[in-house]
Design a protein that fits this description.
The complex is a heterodimer of chains A (317) and B (248).
Chain A (H helix, E strand, L loop, with lengths): L1 E5 L2 E2 L2 E2 L1 H17 L2 E7 L12 E7 L7 H14 L2 E6 L3 H14 L2 E6 L5 E2 L2 E7 L4 E7 L4 E5 L14 E4 L9 E8 L11 E5 L10 H10 L2 E4 L1 H5 L20 E5 L5 H7 L4 E6 L6 H4 L2 E4 L2 H18 L1
Parallel strand pairs in A: 1-4, 1-6, 4-5, 5-12, 6-11, 7-11, 14-15, 14-16, 16-17, 17-18
Antiparallel strand pairs in A: 2-3, 8-9, 9-10
Chain B lengths: L1 E5 L2 E3 L7 E2 L4 E2 L6 E3 L1 H17 L2 E7 L5 H10 L3 E5 L6 H14 L4 E5 L10 H9 L2 E12 L2 E8 L2 E8 L2 E5 L14 H9 L2 E4 L8 E8 L7 E3 L4 H11 L4
Parallel strand pairs in B: 1-6, 1-8, 6-7, 7-13, 8-12, 9-12
Antiparallel strand pairs in B: 2-5, 3-4, 9-10, 10-11
Helix pairs in contact in B: 2-5, 3-4
The chains are: A alpha/beta (317), B alpha/beta (248).
The structure holds flavin-adenine dinucleotide (FAD) and adenosine monophosphate (AMP).
């Protein structure tokens, strides 16, 4: 028996979510009195998972791009080999793509957007968000094998030094039915999905020529940039930056909204961010009701000051 | 070509979310129901494919009689036939199994579902259908072209977009980008009249069992007051973010 975690890599290196699912997996394994085994693809630094409670890594070598069907087949065989009772995955786009396939393969009940360790093992009960973060549900999973999709940044990283062995695992991987023709991705930028901090701009910034404010602030904080829907609709920013109900969900530790009014559809997508800051010249903007910290002021005056002071703060730290 | 669009019947985002019966049931009182936005983008894309190559478009929902108004709306937008599987939707596994059972008698070349529903936010049904059918599957689909039995699709990925090619039968998890908001049509009078005459078949469930259940709901805690910082005092904001919130 074990808890299996799918620890994702990017270009052979473990992603931050890999350590988060390991931390979560360790908490579940402790409750169940068992160990955490990780499955990885092409991980060069798999040992690092030992810092978060993993005692064994099954590393699979796979060529080419990520493919949901191929990866699901590998994880499924790892789960059988490890006699996993619980499988833990992240909420990344790739994990959300492959896990429904894995759930069918393992005949497992699957809960997404899970925010806490199980509150009970029998019946197996987890807390998850629903109604685009307006509520939580208690969800019971009744199948023999259970799959948990952990909401990004909800559980956090919990160090737990453990002796860890890394083994090669060579399952018979499924054949792909999808051919990737081209990939259009900025590789030098922090993505919204991975970011700890997201800086977002709305229509209040007046035009794309002013986006250096958002970008400079983001650079200073090592943050990803995002925008409201009208901003991407008008072509000021690429669609991949649009966040909200119809765009990307954001679950960062810090979300800074500048010149964004805080419409319900915008908030729906960013509500699971831990700390929200708003900068807006209209004290009546609805965002002030959703934010933790706010400045009523003109973005063109406040943001340059903020960048300058943050640079000084970072230099000092 | 035969297309099936899965339609989830969900509360409008602006609806107040409340729970009743000791927080075990969603309070439907005064709630306005809509076609799940991701499904509406998919349905509109299906209409375009129909115009271009003469496909038939069926829509399907797993749910009680209360979802029929939403299915009628899909018919008014232009779907040819609606199917309602007459059982309460409990979890994604059960919903996917029930939909797959219907496609066993009547095979589809393309099944369009949404990336996720805005009520339970599961994001699981399309992938599960694809796995059960052994069909090709593209999630977070923001573009789709079909030529014969070949498909080209665009998938949104973290930080960008990827173009893939595959073959039918295909299942997609769709979202905005398949069509734009300005392409969505409010059904006109003629569409609504025609929808009344279109078939809405009620099918009895196949008895698929769910693997998970929601036992209790809880509203998110109301937020505390925002802490306002003076516009000439951004140092205080930095201090709060560093020492109080501990996020920088
Ligand atoms: C079905 C549906 C889905 C939607 N999905 C989304 C979604 O996913 N994401 C999304 O973002 N929106 C979505 N919307 C749109 C949403 O309702 C709002 O229209 C949108 O979020 C507003 O964008 P904004 O805040 O940038 O612009 P505005 O509402 O125009 O707000 C601009 C703000 O900037 C402030 N401002 C102006 N000048 C300055 C200045 N100099 N300094 C500081 N502040 C300034 C103003 O006070 C104002 O509050 C959706 C709408 C619908 C109907
Ligand atoms: N009860 C249902 N009936 C028909 N389709 C559904 C149902 N529930 C979910 N779907 C489809 O599956 C998609 C994803 O839903 P979910 O997995 O619940 O997030 C939705 O956008 C719909 O296309």
């Amino acid at each position: 028996m074990s808890v299996l975690v799918y620890a994702e890599t990017e270009a052979g290196k473990l992603k931050k979510v890999a350590f988060e699912v390991a931390s979560y997996g360790k908490a579940v394994a402790d409750q169940m009195g068992t160990e955490v085994i990780a499955v990885t693809f092409n991980a060069a630094d798999a040992n690092a998972l030992g810092n978060y409670g993993v005692s064994k890594v099954m590393n699979i070598s796979a060529d080419g791009n990520f493919d949901a069907k191929i990866y699901a087949s590998g994880i499924q065989q790892a789960a059988s080999e490890a006699v996993a009772k619980v499988v833990v995955v992240s909420s990344s786009a790739d994990s959300r793509y492959l896990t429904p396939l894995l759930a069918v393969g393992l005949d497992a009940g699957y809960a997404t957007n899970v925010v806490a360790a199980p509150s009970n093992l029998a019946p197996f009960t987890v807390k998850r968000t629903a109604f685009t973060n307006k509520a939580f549900t208690q969800t019971e999973i009744s199948s023999e094998v259970k799959i948990i999709g952990v909401s990004n940044n909800a559980f956090g990283l919990v160090e737990n030094a453990t002796a860890c062995t890394v083994e090669d695992f060579a399952p018979s991987l499924a054949a792909s039915t999808i051919t990737v023709e081209s990939v259009d991705k900025a590789t030098d930028k922090v993505t919204i999905a991975d970011a700890e901090v997201v800086v977002s701009g709305g229509r209040g910034l007046k035009g794309p020529e002013n986006w250096h404010l958002i970008e400079d602030l983001a650079d200073t904080l090592g943050a990803a940039t995002a925008c409201s829907k009208p901003v991407s609709d008008m072509g000021w920013r690429p669609h991949s930056e649009h966040v909200g109900q119809t765009g990307k969900p954001v679950a960062s530790n810090l979300y800074i909204a500048i010149g964004v009014s805080g419409a319900i559809q915008h908030l729906a997508g960013i509500n699971s961010s831990k700390v929200k800051v708003v900068i807006n010249n209209d004290p009546e903007a609805p965002f002030f009701k959703a934010a933790d910290y706010g400045i009523v002021g003109d973005a063109f005056e406040v943001v340059p000051q903020l960048i300058e002071k943050l640079k000084a703060f970072k230099a000092q730290a | 070509m035969k297309i099936l669009v899965c339609i989830s019947h969900v509360p409008d985002t602006t609806s107040k979310i409340n729970f009743v019966e000791n927080d075990t049931k969603f309070d439907t009182n005064g709630v306005q129901y809509i076609i799940n936005p991701n499904d509406e983008f998919g349905l509109t894309r299906a209409m375009w494919l129909k115009e271009k190559s003469g496909a038939t478009v069926d829509v399907i929902n797993v749910g009680g009689a209360e979802t029929e108004s939403t299915l009628r709306k899909a018919l008014a937008i232009g779907a040819d036939k609606a199917i309602r599987i007459n059982t309460e939707a409990v979890d994604a596994t059960q919903v996917a199994k029930e939909i797959v059972a219907v496609t066993q008698n009547d095979a589809y070349d393309l099944i369009i579902a949404g990336r996720e529903s805005i009520d339970y936010n599961g994001g699981m049904v399309p992938g599960m259908i694809a796995a059960m059918l052994g069909a090709s599957y593209v999630n977070n689909c923001v573009g789709l072209e079909i030529e014969g039995d070949k498909a080209t699709a665009a998938r949104e990925i973290d930080g960008g977009k990827e173009t893939v090619s595959t073959s039918l039968p295909l299942v997609i998890g769709g979202q905005k980008g398949l069509v734009e908001e300005s392409d969505l049509k409010i059904p006109n009078m003629r569409g609504i009249m025609m929808a009344r005459k279109k078939p809405l078949e009620v099918v009895e469930p196949n008895g698929a069992t769910a693997l998970s259940t929601t036992t209790k709901f809880e509203k998110s805690a109301p937020k505390g007051e925002v802490k306002l910082v003076d516009a000439d005092n951004v140092d205080q904001l930095i201090d709060l973010l560093h020492n109080e919130a501990k996020v920088i």
